[in-house]
């Protein structure tokens, strides 16, 4: 019992020492976002959780910057301390998307290499955030329609022609290729 208390006190001292750096990097990382304060709180919570895990496992070979860096990446990909990766593909919650939430889990094959899965979880939300609003709406309509979705149905949902949906698909492919190159 006493040993656990010492570990907790040690973690608290380390966390309080790191807090100014966490806030500085977090504010820079989430600058300009409408939910920057929420993301900063998620960042603090994830770092606290990681710090406790490191101390409990006896792992003292970590740096503040490493913990902050990976926690920032987790927050950007939609994670928080009190929520799993339930964010929709564009970072919104299921009730914000409309008919059907499109989640990251639908696109992840567990047989894939963990590094590829991690890259996917990080890159796709960043790419979607970088899309213009009209392309983002088109992408979500396509994803919500699923693999069996017809261009005609997607066009009706968006209020555009089928040809415009095809053009938008090509624009999305070109945008992704620019993003990943």
SSE ordering: HHHHHHHH
Give the DSSP E fraction (strand runs of 2 or more residues): under 5%
Mean pLDDT: 78
Q: Do you know the CATH architecture of the largest domain?
A: Orthogonal Bundle
What is the name of the CATH topology of the largest domain?
Arc Repressor Mutant, subunit A
Helix content: 55-70%
Number of strands: 0
State the helix count.
Answer: 8
Shape: elongated
Please outline the major beta sheet.
none
Distance between the termini: 53 Å
Radius of gyration: 20 Å
Total count of domains: 2
| CATH hierarchy class name of the largest domain | Mainly Alpha
The structure class reads: mainly alpha
Q: Give the low-pLDDT segments.
A: 84-99
How would you describe this protein?
Helices cover 69% and strands 0% of the residues. It is an all-alpha fold and 181 residues long. The protein contains 8 helices and no strands. It folds into 2 domains: 1-84; 89-181, Arc Repressor Mutant, subunit A.
Keywords:
181 residues; mainly alpha; elongated; 69% helix
Give a nutshell description of this structure.
The chain has 8 helices and no strands. It is mainly α. It folds into 2 domains: 1-84; 89-181, Arc Repressor Mutant, subunit A (Orthogonal Bundle).
Topology:
Blueprint: H1 2-29, H2 36-57, H3 64-76, H4 94-97, H5 114-130, H6 133-145, H7 151-158, H8 162-180
Helix pairs in contact: 1-2, 2-3, 6-7, 7-8
């Amino acid at each position: 019992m006493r040993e656990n208390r010492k570990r907790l006190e040690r973690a608290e001292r380390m966390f309080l020492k790191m807090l100014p750096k966490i806030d500085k990097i977090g504010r820079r990382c989430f600058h300009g976002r409408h939910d920057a304060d929420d993301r900063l709180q998620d960042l603090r919570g994830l770092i606290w959780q990681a710090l406790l895990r490191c101390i409990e496992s006896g792992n003292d070979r970590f740096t503040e910057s490493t913990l902050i860096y990976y926690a920032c990446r987790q927050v950007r990909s939609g994670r928080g301390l009190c929520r799993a990766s339930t964010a929709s593909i564009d970072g919104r919650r299921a009730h914000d998307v409309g008919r059907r939430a499109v989640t990251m889990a639908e696109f992840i094959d567990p047989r894939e290499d963990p590094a590829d899965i991690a890259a996917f979880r990080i890159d796709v939300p960043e790419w979607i955030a970088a899309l213009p609003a009209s392309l983002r709406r088109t992408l979500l309509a396509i994803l919500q329609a699923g693999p069996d979705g017809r261009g005609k149905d997607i066009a009706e949902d968006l209020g555009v022609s089928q040809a415009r949906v095809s053009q938008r698909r090509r624009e999305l492919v070109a945008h992704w290729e620019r993003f990943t190159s």
